[in-house]
Amino acid sequence: MQRRQLLHLLQAAAGLAALAPLRAALAQLDGNASIVSGFPAGGMGDHVARPLAEKLRGKYATSLVVEAKTGAGGRIAVEYVKRAAPDGLTILQIPSSPMTLYPNTYRKLNYDPLADFAPVTTTVNYAFVLTAGPGLPADVRTVADYLKWARANPQQASYGVPAAGSALHFVGMMLQKAGGTELTAVAYRGGAPLLNDVLGGQIPVSISVLGEVMPHVRAGRLRGLAVSSAQRSPFLPDVPTFAEQGFADIVVQEWLGWFLPARTPAATVQRLNALVREGLQEPAFIEALAQSGLQPMHQSPEEFAAMVRADKQRWAGIAKAANFTAEE
Question: Is the pLDDT confidence value at 38 over 60?
């Protein structure tokens, strides 16, 4: 074999070797993948997971289903995915609280949000809303009005939240501290029973996920007193932020994120990230998310990991100031 021919063969072999990681990154996983959610079917997470599963099926893996592993505020799902094989076939979809707030409020967790997982990307973010129902006088229209009423009516000064120890609960604790007013948190088992009680006047106000109360605020059945985002929500533009009303520290916006088990190959993480980005860019999907008060939010794995660290650190200070420890 001539020297030139040998050189060409060696160059071709080198080129194929360089393409091998790219082919691995583009290859469909051979198996049945699942998106594991920590909350019941039919909730907010389904509005994200199921459409994305449809878009990724046959591209990311042979099949892709959504599976609910409910209980313990999402911790059961987190621990389940932690124990899964790092083959890319088991995806965790979880709100930010189990990964950033819980490490600061539970005495013991059976997982580390970064050491035990490979962050893939955020998918959406959403705000919370302080809403008033018929149990509060009609002239209470602002946060200051509510705090004034609470001081005058201490026996009735309560607010409902979907779960104790949640980020929504902490918004209430932050408001109590900033307003210098004693407020009683009433924890419900989910957003649906809380919504029923605030609509029925059994509890004067609620702190709820925006998408759950948005239709009722728009219809005038509930009054939006404040949103927890840094800027006004495009879905409820007439409702001012807490910050606008003088509560600059009450800026809380939760995200929904996807994780894979630690030690999942980086090529698999990047490929899933890219496919999710494609799905989140589709106009029809963006419109569908808006109907649930959700805004698409895509990050690189590195950006996502950095945000998890920063959010966890921020919640550490808030939890310490509140002197709150979650019940096991």
Answer: yes
The confidence score (pLDDT) of residue 43 equals 83
Instruction: With beta carbons less than 8 A apart as the criterion, state whether 258 and 276 touch.
Output: yes
Provide CATH 3.40.190.10 ranges for the chain.
127-245
| pLDDT value of residue 126 | 97
Q: Supply 198's token pair.
A: 């605030």
Q: Which amino acid is at 144?
A: A
Q: In the CATH hierarchy, which top-level class contains the domain 9-125+256-322?
A: alpha beta
Question: Which is it for the CA torsion 283, 285, 289, 294, positive or negative?
Answer: negative
Determine the number of helices (DSSP H) and then strands (DSSP E) in the chain: 12, 10
Please tell me the pTM assigned to this model.
0.87
127-245 is a CATH 2.130.10.10 domain: no
- Residue range(s) in the chain whose domain bears CATH number 3.40.190.150: 9-125+256-322
Say whether pLDDT at 215 is over 90.
yes
**Tell me: the pLDDT tens digits for 133-148?**
999 999 999 999 999 9
Q: How many whole angstroms separate alpha carbon 223 and alpha carbon 197?
A: 14
